[in-house]
């Protein structure tokens, strides 16, 4: 038990504190502070993060449903185009004597236009999904960063007082002075 308290208590800095005091050595206390901050962030940020992810999931699902409706509309359009194609083919047989090549061109143009429309709709659906996923990821990153920053600032504001702040500044000035003497 004495070894544990010795790692947190620095009697060299606070001689009047007896066996209890604060360790102002930043290198020794940073892992503890970081683990506490991370623990608090994980504990309190988990619910908010889950809510954000659930909301994003619902938006993505609704986007997928909208894209599926657009795809169904395109399929219906394709079926109508195919029916029209069959009609054109019947007319082509009747008008074969008068201009087979003109009807063939119309058929190819119709197929190409329908194929292009379907390809554009599929590309739009894929781009929309990719955009929504990237936007969701960016929003979650931004939210987590904001919460981490707020938690860290709150912890710092609660833990630092002016006396401790001045002692830390004096210790750092002493370290910098010693480093300057070494370099001279």
Automatic annotation (TrEMBL):
Subcellular location: Membrane; Plastid, Chloroplast thylakoid membrane
One Gene Ontology MF term: proton-transporting ATP synthase activity, rotational mechanism
Regions that span the bilayer: 32-49
Superkingdom in the source lineage: Eukaryota
GO CC, alphabetical: chloroplast thylakoid membrane; proton-transporting ATP synthase complex
Keywords, comma-separated and alphabetical: ATP synthesis, CF(0), Chloroplast, Coiled coil, Hydrogen ion transport, Ion transport, Membrane, Plastid, Thylakoid, Transmembrane, Transmembrane helix, Transport
Chain segments annotated as coiled-coil in the UniProt record: 64-98
Topology within the bilayer: Single-pass membrane protein
PANTHER family reported for this sequence: ATP SYNTHASE SUBUNIT B, CHLOROPLASTIC
Extra information: In plastids the F-type ATPase is also known as CF(1)CF(0).
Subunit structure: F-type ATPases have 2 components, F(1) - the catalytic core - and F(0) - the membrane proton channel. F(1) has five subunits: alpha(3), beta(3), gamma(1), delta(1), epsilon(1). F(0) has four main subunits: a(1), b(1), b'(1) and c(10-14). The alpha and beta chains form an alternating ring which encloses part of the gamma chain. F(1) is attached to F(0) by a central stalk formed by the gamma and epsilon chains, while a peripheral stalk is formed by the delta, b and b' chains.
Functional description taken from the UniProt entry: Component of the F(0) channel, it forms part of the peripheral stalk, linking F(1) to F(0). F(1)F(0) ATP synthase produces ATP from ADP in the presence of a proton or sodium gradient. F-type ATPases consist of two structural domains, F(1) containing the extramembraneous catalytic core and F(0) containing the membrane proton channel, linked together by a central stalk and a peripheral stalk. During catalysis, ATP synthesis in the catalytic domain of F(1) is coupled via a rotary mechanism of the central stalk subunits to proton translocation.
Family, similarity comment: Belongs to the ATPase B chain family.
Protein's UniProt name: ATP synthase subunit b, chloroplastic
Lineage: Eukaryota, Viridiplantae, Streptophyta, Embryophyta, Tracheophyta
């Amino acid at each position: 038990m004495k070894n544990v308290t010795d790692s947190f208590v620095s009697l060299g800095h606070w001689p009047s504190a007896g066996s209890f005091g604060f360790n102002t050595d930043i290198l020794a206390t940073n892992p503890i502070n970081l683990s506490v901050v991370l623990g608090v962030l994980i504990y309190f940020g988990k619910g908010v993060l889950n809510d954000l992810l659930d909301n994003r999931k619902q938006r993505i699902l609704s986007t997928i449903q909208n894209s599926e409706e657009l795809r169904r509309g395109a399929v219906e359009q394709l079926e109508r185009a195919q029916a029209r194609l069959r009609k054109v083919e019947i007319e082509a047989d009747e008008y074969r004597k008068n201009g087979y090549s003109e009807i063939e061109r119309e058929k190819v143009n119709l197929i190409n236009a329908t194929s292009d429309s379907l390809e554009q709709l599929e590309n739009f659906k894929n781009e929309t999904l990719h955009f929504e996923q990237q936007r969701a990821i960016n929003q979650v990153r931004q939210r987590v960063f904001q919460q981490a920053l707020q938690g860290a600032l709150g912890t710092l504001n609660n833990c630092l007082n002016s006396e401790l702040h001045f002692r830390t500044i004096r210790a750092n000035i002493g370290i910098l002075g010693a480093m300057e003497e070494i370099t001279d």
